[in-house]
Amino acid sequence: MRILLIEDSYRLAQSLTKGLSREGFDLDAFPTARAGVDAFSALNYDAILLDLGLPDQDGLEVLGHLRRRRTDVPILILTARDSIESRVMGLDAGADDYLVKPFAMIELAARIRALLRRPGQPLATLLTIGNTQLNSAARQVTVGGSIVHFSPREIRALELLMRREGQVISKEILEDNLNGLGKNRSQNSIEVLVFRLRRRLQHCESDCRIHTLHGIGYMIKER
């Protein structure tokens, strides 16, 4: 299960990434509202963990924005605001659950599992551009009906691009989604990855074409 964390505390984000990974969750962590919303727009997440005290925007405003974009994704607020009024405001604004810091990792994991058991709208798992289809659940790519091998990082990058077909994805968004918050990054790691992905798509005669917009980012379109 893929979880989006919007939390400005680097230490807490690292702790949650490690702890929830042991519980079987794949966590993408972002320290600002803007970065988190961009990631939310690019990928389908199974649940969102949202801090209210973000540096660039109040968490309740972010919550309202996320709810206007998608009504089905579970959102759990993680915050130090422990008053009854704050809890009521968060739940009334659209949160599915509210957990006050500090909390136990096992309780957070249990709450996430409970939220994911609730019925909701199914997420789109099949992404198609021309003769190329990516099954995000099976992590499998087919071109013209034949399975083509891609590395896990290549599949993740391809998914990110295909979910925004015809739109520009910035290098920063790719870096954050592929490398994770706080991971070491080489200056040209994204360029190398996109180069390999583009060459592999061309080799298997995919209809997908990745365009580079220098200084801006990347965009995928049908040739």
UniProtKB/TrEMBL annotation:
GO cellular component: cytosol; protein-DNA complex
Sample GO molecular function, one term: phosphorelay response regulator activity
DNA-binding region per UniProt: 124-222
Response regulatory domain sequence ranges: 2-116
InterPro entries in the record: CheY-like_superfamily, OmpR/PhoB-type_DNA-bd, Sig_transdc_resp-reg_receiver, WalR-like, WH-like_DNA-bd_sf
GO BP terms, alphabetized: regulation of DNA-templated transcription
Protein name per its UniProtKB record: DNA-binding response regulator, OmpR family, contains REC and winged-helix (WHTH) domain
Source organism: Bradyrhizobium erythrophlei
